[in-house]
# Entry
Amino acid sequence: MIKAMINNTEIEVPEGTTILAAAKKANINIPTLCYHPDLIPGGQCGICVVEIEGIPGLKRSCMTPIGEGWKVHTHTPRIMATRKQLLDLILSNHDTDCLTCIKNNNCELQGLAATLGINSIEYQKMEEKLPVDNTSVSIVRNPNKCIFCGRCIQVCSNIQSVNALAVNNRGYESAVTTAFDAGLGNSPCVNCGQCVVHCPVGALYEQSHIEDVWRAIHDPDLFVVVQEAPAVRVMLGEEFGMEPGSLVTGKMHAALRRLNFDAVLETNFTADLTIMEEGVELVSRLKSGKNLPLITSCSPGWIKFMETFYHTLIPHMSTAKSPQQMFGAIAKTYYAERMGIPPEKIVSVSIMPCTAKKFEAKRPEMRASGYQDVDYVLTTREIGRMMREAGIDLREMPDEPADDIMGEYTGAATIFGATGGVMEAALRSAYFLITGRELEQLEITPVRGLKGIKEAEVDIDGVKIKIAVAHSLGNARRLLDRVVEQLKNEGRSEYQFIEVMACPGGCVGGGGQSWGSNMAKRARRGEALYNEDRSLPYRRSHENPSIKAIYEKFLGSPNSEKAHKLLHTRYFKRSPIDGKIIDGENTTERR
# Structure
């Protein structure tokens, strides 16, 4: 343990603790800008500098371990003047049109300027405008807002291992951009949006579909249906100042009705449908022993990552579509038929915690209904903006259920939003499909939590199934390198079933979530989903009465020809340089 003084307050912390962390423990606030609790400190901005008695110069508190007997000062006149000078320099090269910025009132730079009392910029303003990168269907990159904090590069490279972003050029010409400045849409970017949720300013944000959805809602000739992903119900409250992990399912349904959506339905319904299709697929592969391990396919960021860097695993991928895309296909077929609505009149809107869902909806093969299955994808942030624009305060909403036909769901569906949730949900039903008996211990705790790679062995009627769960693409890469090596050298893998989620924490950590996210908040959101699971009358997907009905009245049985046409998909080999399809024939379907 180290004993030291910060602003004349005695502290005792473990050796190796940074000055910033030690100050936080003593309830002393040191301002930061480039620092993020989930990333390795880089000290790019210098805002967190402090003085240490007897040591010359200023030290960056985010990177400097505190020493025995040190006397640290965090707000001397010299430090305060230095911080303002550094912030002035950043602002002089920043587009400060705050009123029209997507991060207005949520911007860390804006908040810091207010905290430090910046009311004028001392340095000459640089007015050169760089072109905005709109090449991606999911993410917009505005270099005029970039402050070179390095967060986006670190999360893209170190956590996601995609390496789509880097600093190009030198000196005044330096810019955070893609290779050859070709744009995110022409890079290996997988659209996960982790760069977006880690950006402190408005340099990265989602491609917005808000105006498209408003036009559809206000068109009397259209019937607009909306679905909401499992993770949205534990994230949307944060848009309205509620505590992270607040479960707002009923309030969310009520608010969406007041936005005048014609039908408020549930992605959770098709999460249950996904489990039925994927569960039967797993049982089939376990019996045949072919193409094991089976790897889940619900995360579109992971799917593009696989197509780009691990296309040799295509035969091992579940061909079941994600719940979003199953919903889109079913909404314009089964739902349209049951409601007597022409499918061409239905506009399918999804609310997702994920920017990659925008890319997924635009994939050309996602037209099983004969139309684009999902027309528009809104992030949690976007639906929050729509609600505020309509004068809706989510906190004041009553609790209301979703609509019939595609609104009923089980606890298995709701835990899809947490890492390990798809695995747990699938095993609950796979056990029944294999044995004909219900799994009594529903909570499979080894696949829960925020450990990067989780492993477990499950006994299904005497058959041992080894499973693995990875969240974040860097962890997925570490796991899959081992799988590829085993398949190459031994012809088999030690695992039979693998779940991969692109984002840290799973969907509760998605790129479309509320600003200011960190792993602590993601953990609270995940726990809220497990709480909802425990509260629901049905906790296994095959118990859902509405799922039984869709098979009886429309699909026939899981993996039937009709189910295959509407609910299953194929994959492509992509270039690791620009993410484009390079082998249209290198596809895999269930049959």
Remarks:
- Residues 239 and 384 are 6 Å apart (CA to CA).
- Residues 585-591 have pLDDT under 50 and may be disordered.
